[in-house]
Amino acid sequence: MITDAQTNFVYFSGLLKTNPAYETFTQKLTSILSKYHISYEFLEGTNDIWCRDYMPLQVEKNKFIEYRYDPDYLQAKKWRSLKTYPDIVCNKLGLKTIKSDLIIDGGNVIKSENCVILTDKVIVENKLKYTRNQIVSLLKDIFEVETIVLIPWDKENEEFGHADGMIRFINENSVLINGYFKKYDLRFKDSFFGALKANNLEFVELNYNTSVAREELNLGYINYLQMKDLLLIPQFGIEEDEQALEQMKMIFPEYAEKEQIVTIDATSVIKEGGVLNCISWNIVQ
Predict the structure, then answer these.
(1) Residue 75 neighbours by CB distance under 10 Å
(2) ∠ CA 84-88-90 to the nearest 5 degrees?
(3) How many angstroms from the chain centroid is the CA of residue 186?
(4) How far apart are CA 188 and CA 199, in angstroms?
């Protein structure tokens, strides 16, 4: 499986360029990418900015898996206009994909070379066609990994069922998690931390010591953009910004040593429900 840390090219929805609400953010974003010699382009044919969710998953350099992007949160008639059809976008890119009939959101796929983590929403959305064991087997096959880790869907705080606001890989053996999970009920914690332990994954927590906690914003730090030569960390103009940055430098010393950890004000983006991983589709070219 291609990991984020191997990628050298990144795409964004063209809507970031055309929506005035994101003008300042997009100018800063492209300036950073250019400074670090990161190649980028904007996708045509998108209906929302969250291209992580609907773009295919790169398994090998020339192998892309296109899943069924048909999430429950876009089923209501009033939201259907926001659904992007991956085949339309891929056709405009001239990108050939291998199609899977599994319903998946890209934001729910956290990957290392030989392991993929998803919330168990993937089981819920595919249960009418496949059993849990069949789904896990199919995921292993299409992603070409040995291990699938299913963590609980945080329904109370994250209706979309995405894992990228909960957990990210540091390396093959350890993950970064949002420290606020410690406050959750015992059943959730047992399921979440039990899944990590069962798969021999160590974890590091993001935690903050502030006078007023801004959890509606500080949960976004883990939704960073990671590439081969850049770790782009969102900032929100709050007390936790500096603490998050210092923790990232300690967690990812290989980026810090090369001065490849950079911050960007992503306040305009998180207002819409996502941050940097959500708006990006990074691949190896």
Answers:
(1) 10
(2) 105
(3) 26
(4) 17
Report the mean per-residue pLDDT for the chain: 94
Top CATH class of 4-283 equals: alpha beta
- Whether residue 189 contacts residue 242, with contact meaning beta carbons closer than 8 Å, is answered with no
pLDDT, one tens digit per residue, over 95-106 is: 999 999 999 999
The sign of the torsion formed by the CA atoms of 21, 84, 33, 227 equals: positive
170-225 residue pLDDT tens: 999 999 998 877 778 889 999 999 999 999 999 999 998 887 668 778 889 999 99
Question: Residue 214 corresponds to which amino acid?
Answer: R
Other beta carbons within 10 angstroms of residue 221's beta carbon come to 26
Asked whether 195 and 106 are in contact (CB, 8 A), the reply is: no
Element (H, E) at 89: helix 86-93
Q: Are 114 and 101 in contact (CB under 8 A)?
A: no
Where b means 16+ CB within 10 Å and e means fewer, 162-201 reads bbbbbbbbbeeeebbbbbbbeebeeebeeebbebbeeeeb
Q: Where are the beta strands (DSSP E) in the chain?
A: 9-13, 39-43, 57-60, 63-68, 98-103, 110-111, 115-119, 147-151, 167-171, 174-178, 202-206, 225-227, 230-235, 261-265, 280-283
For residue 261, the 8-state DSSP code is: E
